[in-house]
Design brief:
The chain is mainly alpha-helical. The chain is about 70% helix and about 0% strand. It has one domain (about 5-290): Up-down Bundle (Hemolysin E, Chain: A), CATH 1.20.1170.
Length: about 290
Amino acid sequence: MNILSYDLSAAQRRVLDRYTRFLGSLHPTFNNIPVVFARRKASGHAPAVLASDSRLNNARFNERYLQELWERTKEARNLCRAYVADLNTFAQETREMTRRTSRSEPLSKVDFKGYSLSRSPTWRLLPPNDVPDLVHELALRFYQLRAMIQQLKYTIAEVHDESFGLRSVFTKAMDHRSCQCHAQPTVVQELFREARTTPFWDITYSSADAVIRAAEYKTDIGTLFNGLASVSSRVSMFLEVTGSHMDTAINELLRAERVSKLGELNFKLAATKELADAFMAMVDQLENWLRK
């Protein structure tokens, strides 16, 4: 597998970090909108009102999802390492048993207690009674990993899907008139008129003029939303390929569970190990990319 085909770049990571910070800035920015309205009213303008939108609530949830993404990926990576190590040990011990006996040795004659896995303190389902049960246990552990990767993919998909609603809420609010009697200044222009209501954001503005700064702020946020769509697609594809390798590895183990001889088991385990090395490398790469 060519991992470089699914490379995740530092620039993409910055987009994810900036979007997380943007989500955290939304509520403080929106809390300043009534201040803008009150300021305009105090200047003699007809007061404006911005209807509340429940979609704004999703910002807090999505911010937390993204903040927790690295820890959840790290947890999956650590478990993946442990389970792939179990597989490697099991495959090595199978090869050793084959050398001591023969490739034609029936699994029914192999003492499953000779495997290190038989002494595991925990089981995904039931303690084993034979070698096929041990293989099934390995498959169940990979199922657990698969579920964790799928959940990461769901998180990215949810953040992406809800970004459309948040973009709509943000754009509508920023373009809203700051008073009923004039179309200008808009809310975003009025936010930038005073330091106390200026949105906290990480760009260098080209001018001190509130109208110019407001336009540059809106443009940058629009670019950020577009960047998030690209990053979300890339990460989702990355996780899809990772999960595909896991699915194939699980299927190999389920087939290995039904073989009858040590030689056949060796063959299936070798194929599974190659797939496990592939998805382990991808989980490592994702964790390294997200590492704080």
